Structure formats: C-alpha cells, structure tokens
C-alpha cells in the first residue's frame, strides 16, 4: 500500500512540476494545485498509513492513527485554497493589465525585441 | 542627596524574555546610567521647549516630536539597559530615529543624503557591535552587565578578546564619530538645529562613549585597548579641532568641534586609568551643556537672520545682546576659559596627557595643547565673526532677539556652565562621583575639582593654548587661504561614495546573476538545486535506503483509485492546452485524493478536501471565463524535454523519499494529544481538538492568513475590468438563459438543508469528523450556490450581513476566546468545557473551544464567499461593452 501511495505522490509531483514550468498562468495554477495535492498527501503520510483507525476516541481500543499530521494538513488544505484563489486573482489582474497571460508578463517574442 | 533615587547601589529590574538566547528584558540603574539619564531627560526637555519655537508652522510639529520622543526613549533604553542584546536593539533604534530626524526636511537633498550617510555608517557599526556583543556574551556566558562587568579578567585573557574589542569599538567609533568614521556627523547637520543640539552634541554621539565607559571594567587596560582607543581619540581630537576653524557654516564649525571633543573623551578612556575616567565623564557633562547651548544659539542666529554662513554674518551684537552674551559664555566654556566648566575638565585632561606613558609619551601634551589652541581659535571665530567683525551686512532677514522660550533653555544651560565652573564641589561633584563609581564599578580614585591648584604644568598648557589660539585666529586669513588651496578638496565622502558604489555594483552583479526576470528560469534553478541537494543527502547517509517497517496489504479498490489518480494527473499535464478539459480532470484527481483520506483514517481531511474541491472548481471556472481558453504551444522542443526530465527526476526523488520515510518506524508526540484530548480538551475528535485547543494559536495564525488572503484578493479584483468573450471555444454563443429554472428552484429549496448540514457538522466537530473549517466550507458552498443560481443582486438583497463583517467578527471571536482565558489567569487560548443536556438531542459537550471554532467558521465563510462573489462580480464591470443594449448584456450575474 505504501508503495502505491508513494507512486501517487510521485506522479502528482511530476505532473505538478511539469505544469509550473509552462509559460502561461493557467497551467501554473493547475500545476500548483496538483503539487499541493502531492505535498498534502506527503505530509499526511508522515503519520504513516493506518486503515480504519480514525482518531475519534472510543471507536477502537487504543489503536489510533497519528492525528497531528492530519491537523496540519487540514489547515494546509484550506490555506492552499486561499493561495490558489490569490494566484488566480493575480493572473486575472495581470491579464487585464498586461493584455496577455504570459507568466513573465510578456510574450517571449516581445521580450527579445526589447 | 535629593537627586539620587538609590543609595549608591545598583537597581536591576528584569523580566525573562527569550531565555533560550539569553535575552532578558532588563534594566539597571547605577551612577553612570543615572548621569546619562539626567543628560537625556534634562537636555531633552530643554530641546523640546526650544523646538516648539524653532520648527516653523509650515512643518509638521507632530512628526517632529514623535521622532524626537522615539529617539529619547531609545536613548534612555541604551543607558538603562542591563542586557546587552537589549542594548543593541535600542542602539539600532537610535540610529533609525536619528535617520528620521536628520531627514526631517525631506524636500532638501542635503537632508536625505545626510540621513542616508548617518544611517549607513552608524547602522554598519551597529551590526559590528552586535557581533562583538554576541562574542562577549559567548565568552562570559551571559549578556547581563552584572555578569559581564565582574568578568573583566576572563574577558581580557580570552583568545577572542581582540575580535571582541575590534567589533565593539567599530560600533563605538561609528556612533561617536571617531576617525575615520567622523564624516557622517557634519553631514547630519542638515537636520533641524534642535536635533543637532540634542542628538549630535549631547546624546546620540555620546552613546558610543557611554558604551566605552559602561564596558570599561570588562574590556579596558590591555595594550590593544590603549592603542586602538587612544590613537583614534587623538587623531579625532586633532583633526576635529583643526578642521572646525575652517568651516564657514556655524553648524559645520560646531560639528567638527563636537568631533574633537568626542575625540578628547575617547582619548581619556584610552588612557585606561581611573583618573582619566573621572576626567572623561566630567567632560561628557560639560561638553553636553556648553555644546547644546551653542547649537541652540546657532539655531537662533539661523532663525533670526536666515543664514549660518559666518562670512555673511557680523555685527549682531547690537541686535541681539542677550543671545550674544549667552553665546560668549558658552563659547568660553568650549575654549576652556577659567570660571567655566570647560576649563575644569580641560585642565584634568591636560594633566592626564602629561603622565601618559603608554602611547605617545612626550608628544601627548604637545598635541593636547595644539588641539586646545585650535579650540580657542574656533571659539573666538564663532563669537567674533557673528556678533562683532564690523557692521552687519545685508542679510535675508533683519535680526532681533528670538522668542523668550527659545532663550530660556540656553539661559539655563549657560547658568549650568557657570555654576559647574565656579562651584564644582557643590553642583557636580556628587553626581560625578556616583557616575564614576558606576563606570569603574569600584570606588572612585582621589581627585580634586578645585579651581586653583597653583601654578602647575596643566595651567601653563592652558595659557599656551589660550594665547596660541588668539595668535592662530589673528593669522586666520593666511590660514584660510592655505587651507582653501591645499586641504579643502579632501572629503571623506569621496572614498565613502566609491565604496558604496562598489558595493552596489557587486550587489547588482549577484542580483542579475540570480534574478533573471523569468519565473521558469528561477523555478528550474530552484528545482535542480533541491534535487541535487536531495541526491547529496542520500549519498552521504550510510543507512539503507528503505527501513524495516512492514507495508500494509494492497486491495483492489485502492489499486483502481490509484490508477484513476495517476491517469488523471498525467492527463491534466498532457492536456493542459485545453483548459476546460484539464480543469475537469483535475477535479477528478481532487476527488480521489479525498477518497484516499477516507481510506487512510482521516475523515476530517476527506471532508475538507471534498468541500475545498467544490469551491476551488467554482473559483477556477469563474476565472477561466475571462482567460484565454487555450494555451499556445510556445516552448521549444528541447526545453520541453528538459522540463519533462526535471519533472520525472523530481517525481522519482519524492517517490524514494516517501518510501524511505514510510518504511521506517518513528516516535510520535501524538500520544499526548490522544491521551489528553478527552480529559483536557473535552472532545473525542482528536484532530479537531488539536486544531481548536492544543494548537489553537497556530490555527488563529492560519485563519488570520486566510482572512488576509481574502482581503488581498478583494482589493486586487476591485474595479478590475476584463474583456468577457461572447462566444465559447467552438464559436457558439453563450446561453442567454443564465439562471436555469431548475437550478434556481432546487437551490432555494436546498439552502435550508445545506445550512442545517453545515450547522450539524459544526456542532459535532469536537467529537466526530467536522468542525469550523469543514462547516465553514459547506456553508460557503450553500451560499455560493445561491449566488450562482440566482445572481448576485438577488442573493445579496437576501443576505443580511457583509462578508467583511463575517471576517472581522470571526477573528474577533477567536481572539477574544483566547483573551478570556488570559483574563481569568490561564495562558492564552486555554479552553474549558462542560456537559450540557440538550433536550431531544441528548447529552452534549460544550467547550469554550467551540467559541474559537465559531471564529474559525466565520472567517472561512467570510473569506470563501468574499473571494467567489468578488470574482463573480467581475462580470458586472466587464459586460458593459460598447454595445449596451445587446443581448450579451443580460449574460451577467446582475
């Protein structure tokens, strides 16, 4: 189970890295989203994997998963949303002000002309 | 004595601040601190009164006084600090407030330049001082003066002694304008004159000297100390008194005179004998009084005549006799004329130079007399060229006596000069004695403050200086010509500027190497370096790659999920050119991630991920409407391959890292949370208890960040106009039926149900999966659905609160919950709980943490709805296209 989780995290990371290296804002936003899935899963996995051991006291006898990474990841997910929203708003603003959605604010061609 | 708040003991008041780095919030009051505190407070008060009439009504009085009081507080902090780290903080604060004060007249280039130079020099010195103090603290094992002052021998014999005094002296010399750092002080004269009188004669420049006397028992007495301190002092003394004569600007003259007097005091500390310390501290008092009054006089002259240039002034005696009298007395004190305070300390100084055996031996008294002669010369010049020297020339203003409250501070200071000069035993002796005790940390040596010691060698030196000064002034024309021809072009600013520009060039070089103005380039560097760092880390470890921990068994369902997730992630990357499709696919990936959380015992995370997924999708969809629908292919093939390789390497690295961790056992600190969640936090859902109770402070920080992000987005999108396309990617028009009837009806019917689910999830959160974050997201979705289905205008009318208020109240409630526990005597955010019997529902646990969770809930709802509505509202601006009455116009959110 651990191997396939590691595989999933790896694929999410790879796809995320690939996308944030693109030249337009939109793929970068998608890439950040994928990366944050990967990172959240990675952080969550630091508590190791447990099945049917949710940290709700009373369900099991003294066999619970590690709740601390979960608490950290929970806020990370919410903050991640705020960050995605911020980046999206930034890309809209940049698109409106610069007239294109290139990640560096201008087309590569125009850049050379300058 | 009435003015000593203590019986010659050292009062120390300290609070623990950051014990782990040895930083206490600690103050000490001993004689030395007391003397400086008196100087700061008394001269400060006089300057405050004086400045009230000096600062013109066109300038901002409030800004001036707030800077001045900021400075005063910081300066008091320096002289009363017990902890040296704390002292450095105050030290930097004086540099900063001095910067603000020098540049008070921001419109003048001199003010800005002078402030920059002062800040650069003193700030750099402050850093050196910090380094020196860190080393000193390392040697002694404590940053508290009580420990350091008694460990003098240990410090002096330590191998790090030389770097320690080099660094500390760098701080001292920059602050107290010692050669070769003296050049900032004349430039700082661009400050308003009350500032010069206060900071640049009486207080701030004395901070360095204060530190010399403060650390005297710990550092002084060695050969390094004597050579470094006394040679810097001697050079500064000579250079300052010599240059002062040739400055035509009144304040320039006073600035160089200040430099020379600071050099004199430094030189005395350099002698490193108790008697020299007595002379030094005595001269600190005297210099502060006569120099502050002379600066004030210079300010009065500038104020009344409109110029400070001594070549244009003259003959003011008839117009302002009162001011002239004051100036003459103060200048005589500066020159060292008997019956005034300057004479006494100068005599003591001459006496010390005579028995100097360490440094220059017989040259010392000669140099001292020479400097004294120049001091006499520039003092005469100050008086003669301003008040006499023929008739008054044409001046910008016709001078008259200043307002009475500009004179009173000068009056008082001049009276002090006179009183100390004539009756030293009554006026200054007790204060001097305790101050010397405070500096030396032992009883003061035998010394005499008497006016008359007989015809001694020091008296002869005084006479020689006096007549030498008159002679020099008499020959001034030739000297001025000579100076103009040979020396006037020497300016320490030139090497300073060269150094500064060289530093700028180096900084630019590094910045341009690293900063390529391209996100991709920087990301590639960042990723490559972290990948390499990972490889290096793995290569140097000598344990096996994987640990011994047993893996869980795989089941079919998980394999299917994995399959979908991997396909989804790859497809998102591969198909990102078609933006809408890739968004749908990424939604699937997000759903699988939340299923994974369920599988691996994290129901809270699953709920959060699911609801975040919904709002994120709505958010990106809304934004996508305005963005181009396709991504053009513009990366060259080689770059694409490079990116793919980098992505694959990154993924492989993460894979190995994850497995390496997951195959090892570990010790968790969570057993504490599991054991105490119910007994201490009153909840069975440990994740929620951690969020709102154990780690409540973290959560408070996180919702604050959330709120700031929301407000940032709000501000960024406010008033933004975007072009809204009228057609979709296939060229067909968008549907005009913007609020489908079924969606509208269902959404309205479902609202109460969704809100109820939200409340239910919120209330049970402490014990079962749920809580403020999740409930907040669910309620946000419920509200956003209304906006989507019915339009903004319709919905807003029916929602009675603004999202901004939700944010604010949420943060308020969360913070107040924490503060309440402080009020009743527990640490911030301590929670309490009790059991409630709620009819129909059953027993119900209510913890104070639920109030905190309510704050979290409100912030999440406020932020999420605010962001989405602000994005939705964009269409209101964007659709006001040229064709106002077209059908597209209805395609809005209203």
Describe the model.
The complex is a heterodimer of chains A (114) and B (894). Chain A is mainly alpha-helical and 114 residues long. Chain A has a single domain, classed as Orthogonal Bundle (Helix Hairpins). Chain A has four helices and no strands. Chain B is mainly α and 894 residues long. Chain B is built from 36 helices and four strands. In chain B, the strands form two sheets. Chain B has a two-stranded antiparallel ribbon with strand order 1-2. In chain B, strand 3 and strand 4 form a beta hairpin. In chain B, helix 14 packs across helix 16. Classes of the chains: A mainly alpha (114), B mainly alpha (894).
Please indicate the percent range of residues of chain B in DSSP E strands (runs of 2 or more).
Answer: under 5%
CATH architecture of chain A: Orthogonal Bundle
Largest sheet of chain A: none
Net shape of chain A: elongated
User: Which residue ranges of chain B are poorly predicted, with pLDDT under 50 across at least 5 consecutive positions?
Assistant: 880-894
